[in-house]
Write a sequence for this structure.
């Protein structure tokens, strides 16, 4: 039997060469948020009466808790989830840290740090287990655990107070090389003062760059991008989610430590604002709330944009009453610019 | 001894039996086709073989030893590697990251060795003859054909013992298909077993050694492809009597003025120059294997897709499909496939569902006039014989057939004349099906025209006046009168039609 096959028109794909998109296109959102940050910094430096190590330290410290907490939020958002319990976990760990460090033994702060990070990990593990194995919606799970963490924080520390060693505050939020230059080999020395918070930022960037080169990072991007395809590719979806939430919990614990250092006290409400601000930083940084796309490098810039915003607005004489409005507007503009890339999708029902 | 054997497999999804005592086995060094109509059980069998579904009963044996795959990863670890039409690629990762998913090379620090990943990926793609894809490109930026190539490369990179290709070449052009086949033959020579599912009969003829035919979830038999004729295979695929009774076709009294005229309707590679006309009083069937553009055609006409080109006239007036509101204004109605999510709002009462698309007609000054609403819904209940305790019953409590009637009633109220029905009888019982058929005939008798997509061949043959068979986004064949038979529909659908493209009248 002669097969009368319908002729198949050659598709454009046949001889097309597919290249990686150019760097600028691939990293458009990242470059945008870093450009915004540099602009704000330039305005700040131009407008500020002085720019001494003191001001540098203030800037570096202002976004640090958000930068640390944002690391955790980035991981969760990359899986396609969201962590609403991040802020309350910061409050809880801050409260615990201020409660358990004995005044007569500042060195015990090390033990405190380990305990606080463990508490964060446990909280994240609970979130992750409920999401990954309980198959519950992340937004509901973390909304509920947010209330639980807040409740425990208020139980531990009903009134603000407690004790954080001054040495610890200096270690995280002080200025390095101000009194003593750093002696380097070959008789060189470094005498320009640097805010110690900048070391934390550099450490976060290094951790991210390493993390991005691990298998687990690929898994986290994969499940956020297409959970079904990841499952079909043999990815243990539940385990990757569990890990992402646990790491987010550890990041929240670390942010609790930073809060402790910066405020030198404990407060059961100290970190609550970080929940929404960390989501804003992630979105400003170019990550997709649907998961699978984004980078901590963007979140980091987003965190400092959010932190610098009030100061810059202050220099322009904007009343603090309107600052929130401006902050919201910046977020909307940034997100709208990011949405431009979505125009490729050709219908609202997304190909059914 | 067979390399991979499945014996006595049962698989049920809810109340639907997908496989019943089905068996399949393949040997090392053969290319084995799975054939069957839509819903015959091929895909379910393949998913059982590679650990996506666990069978309710029956055994799987690899090398004669019983195996039980917990998930796809377990099957892959045993060397059974599938390539599905619904892709397993991660859109936001690079080609190389996808090719090495779960098998990433790492350096001494335990970090990903991206250089090696990219180099090995380029080598793997080169081995298949596809050098035009940069391993560092993001999968999202690839065309569908390129993604299929990457998908196939990914499977071959796992060094499979059994390679399953489920419609894996559907988006490739003939040159690309040729390249893939050359590699598949090499694998066969190396002793790999290849399980091949394709809707292109000529591909099966060119490539396969044996074929196993499925029908209604059961294995019909296995044939040597070289010895079996197309007729014999098609007969094995249909091989059943008509199951349902259909209302009689009224004597043809075709209105010379066409109700819906479609010229050169195109949508990317999903629809290619589709031309047809639909007259008042007519049921025009849309057939062909699944995913050949039938659904896209209905959605495109209803204005859901952007980027549709071509000419459409409704009752002589030009109409450009832009959005569903425009389609409604042009008297088109779409009864979607999934009534539970797209057609109905399940928790709302029957009455409110019926008037949902026509609220301005039953409201005065924005307030719903209950008398008008009752009149409208009452009329529909009469006309369609909707069985419900009351109009206030939430629609989710109705049977599947009655839900579908509510879905149709909603659109009749809009005064629609052209009804686009997307597999309206899927998942409803036989009695309700018959009521839907009768309803469709009543509607055409009242002067409507129906474009009717169904995956059930018996329906197309029993109910339609004419049928278009779609193949790769184009109308491959038009059948009517005595030519409208299941055998002809199947032949046209798998691309062995004796009659070439029919007139586009």
């Amino acid at each position: 039997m002669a097969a009368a096959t319908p002729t198949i028109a050659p598709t454009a794909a046949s001889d097309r060469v597919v290249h990686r998109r150019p760097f600028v296109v691939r990293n458009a959102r990242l470059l945008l948020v870093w450009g915004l940050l540099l602009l704000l910094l330039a305005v700040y430096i131009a407008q500020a009466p002085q720019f001494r190590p003191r001001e540098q330290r203030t800037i570096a410290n202002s976004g640090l808790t958000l930068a640390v907490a944002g690391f955790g939020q980035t991981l969760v958002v990359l899986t396609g989830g969201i962590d609403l319990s991040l802020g309350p976990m910061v409050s809880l760990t801050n409260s615990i840290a201020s409660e358990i460090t004995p005044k007569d033994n500042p060195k015990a702060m090390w033990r405190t740090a380990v305990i606080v990070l463990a508490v964060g990990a446990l909280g994240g593990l609970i979130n992750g287990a409920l999401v990954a194995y309980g198959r519950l919606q992340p937004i509901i799970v973390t909304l509920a655990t947010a209330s639980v963490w807040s409740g425990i924080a208020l139980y531990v520390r009903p009134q603000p107070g407690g004790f954080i060693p001054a040495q610890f505050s200096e270690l995280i939020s002080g200025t390095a090389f101000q009194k003593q230059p750093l002696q380097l080999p070959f008789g060189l020395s470094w005498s320009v003062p640097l805010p110690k918070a900048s070391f934390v930022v550099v450490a976060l960037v290094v951790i991210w760059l390493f993390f991005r080169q691990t298998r687990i990072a690929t898994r986290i991007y994969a499940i956020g991008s297409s959970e079904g395809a990841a499952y079909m590719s043999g990815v243990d979806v539940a385990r990757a989610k569990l890990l992402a939430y646990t790491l987010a919990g550890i990041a929240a614990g670390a942010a609790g430590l930073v809060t402790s250092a910066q405020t030198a006290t404990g407060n059961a409400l100290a970190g609550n604002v970080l929940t929404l601000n960390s989501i804003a930083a992630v979105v400003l940084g170019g990550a997709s709330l649907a998961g699978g796309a984004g980078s901590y490098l963007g979140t980091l810039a987003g965190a400092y944009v959010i932190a610098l915003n009030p100061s810059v607005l202050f220099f322009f004489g904007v009343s603090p009453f309107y600052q929130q409005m401006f902050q919201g507007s910046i977020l909307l503009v940034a997100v709208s610019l990011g949405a431009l890339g979505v125009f490729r999708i050709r219908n609202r029902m997304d190909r059914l | 001894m067979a390399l991979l054997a499945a014996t006595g497999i049962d698989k049920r999804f809810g109340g639907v039996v997908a496989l019943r005592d089905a068996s399949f086995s393949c040997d090392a060094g053969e290319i084995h086709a799975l054939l069957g109509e839509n819903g015959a059980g091929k895909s379910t069998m393949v998913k059982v073989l590679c650990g996506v579904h666990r069978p309710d009963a029956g055994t799987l044996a690899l090398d004669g030893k019983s195996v039980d795959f917990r998930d796809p990863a377990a099957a892959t670890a045993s060397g059974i590697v599938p390539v599905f039409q619904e892709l397993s690629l991660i859109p936001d990762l690079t080609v190389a990251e996808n090719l090495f998913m779960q098998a990433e090379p790492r350096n001494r620090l335990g970090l990903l060795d991206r250089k090696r990943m990219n180099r090995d990926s380029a080598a793997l793609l080169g081995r298949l003859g596809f050098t035009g894809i940069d391993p560092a490109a993001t999968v999202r930026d690839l065309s569908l054909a390129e993604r299929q190539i990457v998908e196939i490369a990914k499977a071959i990179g796992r060094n499979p013992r059994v390679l399953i290709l489920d419609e894996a070449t559907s988006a490739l052009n003939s040159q690309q298909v040729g390249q893939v086949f050359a590699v598949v033959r090499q694998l066969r020579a190396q002793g790999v077993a290849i399980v091949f599912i394709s809707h292109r009969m000529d591909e099966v003829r060119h490539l396969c050694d044996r074929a196993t035919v499925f029908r209604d979830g059961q294995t019909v038999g296995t044939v040597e492809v070289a010895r079996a004729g197309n007729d014999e295979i098609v007969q094995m695929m249909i091989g059943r009597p008509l199951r349902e009774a259909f209302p009689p076709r009224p004597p043809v009294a075709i209105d010379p003025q066409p109700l819906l005229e479609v010229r050169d309707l195109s949508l990317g590679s999903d629809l290619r120059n589709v031309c047809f006309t639909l007259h008042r009083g007519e049921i025009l069937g849309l057939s062909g294997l699944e995913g050949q553009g039938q659904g896209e055609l209905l959605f495109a006409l209803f204005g859901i897709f952007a980027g549709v080109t071509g000419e459409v006239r409704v009752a002589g007036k030009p109409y450009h499909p832009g959005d569903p509101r425009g389609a409604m204004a042009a008297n088109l109605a779409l009864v979607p496939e999934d009534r539970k999510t797209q057609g109905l709002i399940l928790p709302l009462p029957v009455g409110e569902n019926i008037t949902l698309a026509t609220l301005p007609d039953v409201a005065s000054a924005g307030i719903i006039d209950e008398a008008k609403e009752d009149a409208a819904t009452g009329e529909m209940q009469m006309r369609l014989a909707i069985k419900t305790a009351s109009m206030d019953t939430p629609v989710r409590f109705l049977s599947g057939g009655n839900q579908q009637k509510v879905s149709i009633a909603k659109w009749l109220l809009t005064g629609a004349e052209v009804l686009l029905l997307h597999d309206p009888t899927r998942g409803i019982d036989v009695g309700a099906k018959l009521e839907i058929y009768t309803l469709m005939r009543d509607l055409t008798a009242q002067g409507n025209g129906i474009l009717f997509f169904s995956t059930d061949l018996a329906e197309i043959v029993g109910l339609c006046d004419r049928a278009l068979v779609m193949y790769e986004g184009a109308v491959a064949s038009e059948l009517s009168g005595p030519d409208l038979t299941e055998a002809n529909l199947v032949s046209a659908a798998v691309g062995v039609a004796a009659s070439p493209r029919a007139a586009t009248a």
Q: What stands out?
A: The first strand of chain B starts at residue 4 and ends at 13. Residues 345-416 of chain B form one domain. Chain B touches chain A through 68 residues (CB under 8 Å).
